[in-house]
Each structure stands twice: as structure tokens, then as C-alpha cells.
Specification:
By secondary structure, this protein is an alpha+beta fold. It has one helix at 37-45; strands spanning 8-9, 16-17, 22-27, 31-36.
């Protein structure tokens, strides 16, 4: 039986591919989603992620 590998796909821009790296983002409106690096950076700069849930293990400096 041949295994079928699901291609990674960015939830926001739809970019896909077997070698695409996805990052977890807790979007303020969409909840937990997997996005490409470019979309993650865009979400961060536009303040569209829930603070303290970026996977760094802590809260952001403005929440302390």
C-alpha cells in the first residue's frame, strides 16, 4: 500500500507544498491556525494574534 503524504497548506494565503514549513498562530478571530512564515510575520505586525500564545513559552513584554 502506498502512503499518501498530505501537503502542508497555509490557512490564510493558501500557499502549499511538501517542503512548506507552517507555524502555529492563535489568530484573534480564527483561533489556532497553521500559517506560513510570511503570514505569521504579517499577523504579528498587524497585531492579529492573541498575546502570549506565540509558542515562546511566555507572555510578551507588554503583558508583564
Amino acid at each position: 500500500m502506498k502512503k499518501v503524504r498530505k501537503m502542508a497548506e497555509c490557512r490564510l494565503c493558501g500557499k502549499n507544498g511538501e517542503d512548506l514549513t507552517l507555524l502555529s498562530a492563535n489568530h484573534k478571530d480564527l483561533g489556532q491556525i497553521m500559517v506560513c512564515e510570511e503570514c505569521w510575520k504579517k499577523l504579528w505586525h498587524e497585531n492579529r494574534m492573541v498575546c502570549g500564545t506565540t509558542g515562546s513559552g511566555g507572555t510578551c513584554p507588554s503583558c508583564r
